[in-house]
Amino acid sequence: MLITFVVTISLFSQFNTYSPYTRFGLGDLAKKGVAQNLAMGGTGLAIHENNRINFLNPASFSGLDSTSVYFDFGANSFHNQYKTTTISNTWWNMNLHHVAFASSMGKYLGISTGLIPYSSIGYNITQQYNDYNSGVAMDTYYSGEGGIMNFYVGASIKLLSRISLGVTMNYLMGRLTRERKVNFPVNSNYSNVSSLENFDLRKPVFTLGMQYKEVFGDKFFFSLGGIYDLETRVNADLEYVVKNQIYTYQPEKLYDSLVIDPDVTLGQDTAIRSFTIPQKMGGGIAFGIPNKLTITGDYYLQDWSGSLSGENYTTTRATSIHLGAEYTPDVKALRGYHKLMTYRVGGYYSNNYLEVNDHQLTDYGITFGVGLPVRTLRSSINVAFTLGTRGTTEYNLVEENYGIITFNVTLHDLWFRKRRFD
Hints:
This protein is mostly beta strands and 422 residues long. It has a single domain (2-414), classed as Porin. The protein is built from 1 helix and 23 strands. The longest helix has 4 residues, at 35-38. The model is unreliable at 1-14 and 254-265 (pLDDT under 50).
């Protein structure tokens, strides 16, 4: 049997992915964080600052100054190249990324809420089968679209001026739609069969966070951070419909073992109903010079083994490591705007939660970006660039080379101020 794997790319799409790997599981799990995090390799578990919304760790919300309020919104643009050993295609898209709000509630309490991506799917795949024994050609078309968003609400409290504890309720919601069609391009008198899966998810997932930060004047700081996502059992709504289009001819035999007639239907391809979102653990470290230099690293572990499986795939143990740094030449500079800018760089390497064709996917890349202050150092425009690779052309898989530009605006204001007039 000869199988030809073709990925067709649409120029315009409402989804931030067009990867064939999103056919499996929950699709492409989003890279978390705003541009400040993403430019530093996706780090942030140990970052406890007063000039950004860091929803990677809910313990960070108490780092905002009293009377401060932040509003953050962003967008990103993708440029992807997909290739096998014989073909390649490109695709690009731009879409909104997140909206977030955070505020201090006094000296020791911070809160935040927002809407951020969790996962997305988007693909259009053709598999062409040619059976040399029977001379029958059969084409299978796979397509998918949709995504899952995360509406989060979190709070953090500071204890003993150095330790912060936080919790976030992440409410996952969205629909994933997958469709499959089979037809016979040479034998038009055979039936056509199609299936449609609509997967609807509505489920809260809770995240606990902790941070410890020690500052030694204006010379050095050191901080640790960690998060823990509670294991969550999901019973999702699944609508699965199969349609057989049977022509008025007598049922036709393709070969001795298969007859296409009303009794033959497609089996469920990647249908998901009940599964477990496993616990997730992450730890991070950061150190440097206050208001000047930050060097940081994070590590995540989430064991998806046995949670999801289907045709040609299963889920497995996922790990990732992230490294990053940021540098601001002089936060007090009166001249030279470039001295007030923040420069960021980083990288990451992850073992993906998907195992396709008995091979676990890897994802790695480099990142860099810049923060441009507006009026004050706490309001800023931030840009992050990501260059990465996922998958491989070996093992009958697809290699993805991608570039992502993430843009966000962080607006800062003061609340509860007492104004004095002469």
